[in-house]
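Hi V.,

You were right to ask for the full record rather than a summary. Here it is.
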Amino acid sequence: MAEAQTSVQMSGEDSYTLEIRRLIKAPRAKVFDAFVQPEIFGQWWGPKGVTCRNLKIDARVGGDYSLEMHHESGNVHHLSGSYQKIDRPRELVYSWQWGVGDEKGQVTNVALSFHDHTEGTEIVLLHTGFDTAENRDNHNSGWSGSFDCLVQII
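Predicted structure:
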């Protein structure tokens, strides 16, 4: 498998962007479905040491998703958002927000595109709207670890 490629950028609006390109040795439709089918998503989501619980996915434009990420240390992180674009098996766009209730954080946006490759599927992730380089870099670590887990189950 090809090495993962990661680049980090700062846009003109004083926000940071994360771009990751990852090759997955599986057909594009299967890789796309791993992001929208709860029975698959729950098997791989989260970096090593994290399990996905209380997962709800309503994979349609305007539909919502929510989940809890349980770390082996005991920490629990809540994540939710709504789907803005679903074009199976080419593109998936959704909002991303940590926390629950009054503890919700800033909203960022995720755009995933899925491209045929001679060895399977190339995923291009653009996660935008971070307010600090540290926040962006923490998400880089999380996404990269999650993609490592995806490779193991697909």
